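dude i think i finally got it to work??
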Amino acid sequence: MNLWKKWEKKLDEHKKKDEKLKQPPSDEQRVQQEDGLLFESSDFKQTTFVNGPTGKWFQFQFLESLVDNQTVGELVLPKLLSQPLESLDDLIKLVPDTDVLLTTKQEELEERIFQGYVAMTLKGDPDRIAFLKAAQLIARKIAPPEVEFSVIGPKEAFSEAIEYNIHLIRRRLPTKKLVIKEKTLGSLSKSRTCILYIDGIANEENVNTVMQRLEDVRFDTIPDSSFVEQLISDNKNSPFPQLLDTERPDRVASTLSEGKVVILVNGSPHALIGPTTFTEFFSTFEDYFLNWIISSFFRIVRLFAVAFSVLVTPIYVAALTYHYEMIPRDLLSTLVSSRQEIPLPPILEAIFLEMAIELLREAGARLPTKVGQTIGIVGGIVIGTASVEAGLTSNVLLIIVALAALASFTTPVYKIGNTIRLIRFPFLLFAQFWGLLGIVFCFCFFMAHLLRLTSLGRPFLEPIYPPRFTDLKDSIIRLPFDKLRMRPSNLRPPSKDRFSGKSTSSSKKYKDIDE
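look at this
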């Protein structure tokens, strides 16, 4: 009986000792929070440990969903438990100094915790907080481009992790002149936003414009770079994108060397490039991997395809409604025979087919990949054939609308493709009201809008207006590389020359080794 009481007494002593060690620090010693909301989250952890050699307790506060538990549990914690820890300054000896931040500012606690840091407080040092870097980076691995795919050239695209994206750019531009400035946008999302430019090449006014507009952003959540584009655009009511977005790091590196400014947002696989021009939306980076004659031909084809996509259906409506005399006699008989049983006027017939094409596009884009492809092909064939056999549309207009839709797919930038899909409908309405005169009036309206449009304060329609003939060498067509010595003049770069003027690529005839 006495032995049993003896064991009970020892057990009670051990329990009291364990409770004393696990007892959380007092309110004066504990890091103060602005409110108690953080403690209510299930992934918030607050644990207390005891340093073996000194007997001092230290406390960890962190979000389990953002912290790499392996880093904390296997690399950091064993050293803190076994090595002497008299003050927070000893952390630098135990943990690499690049992973430790010491501060006396209590207001940094919440911000650092949500960045993936572990907040640490130590008995005897209540006025300071140590932040241990242990963020867990979970992101999609580098994959080939999906929107700007190219046959020739690199097969790397940005991911949602801004660290990976900066790494891809740094690897292509290993120079100290590449400057990266970081800002935090979004009162709730706290999205990391980086501004990249090359010092000595980018115009300081362009950089300051971007910095100032990002400073003026007032929004709660910034999940993607598209939000930033809409918030800092010169004209927020314009259907035309005023910043070029890309998922290719090689294109970003090339535009940085020209003197442009790039914006990266954490969580977005697309970078924003500015200032940009209207003609850049119809060029791909693959153009620079091809011979200059071939790439110039492809650019002209894209511009022609865009004009064809926008104007061909309105011209059909205008010709059949007001201008029969413009139709050749041989073609007129074909149009009459194709429309003799159609009960709808040309405008309704055209809108019906255009809307059917748009519905097929949206269905194909929103459905899973394999199902979307099937819907696009089978749906187009079935609906087109059924509408002609039912007498709702003519086979001539069906061919025209199909070719217009096919031409609109040649635009390499997705956002300008959406704009082209939209502006076809105003042209259709003006063609119905005033015929060819209405098409000309609508064209003048959009041209006046483009003339007034700017990108980060620079002319959007340059080099067409204002006319700058030196920039035409890499706009509608692309000349050989030895002709691209000067950087674009609309960017006003401090360093205008990309390379020395003594070019040997075309002026000098290459000789064989025997010569």
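The chain has 15 helices and twelve strands.
im so relieved honestly
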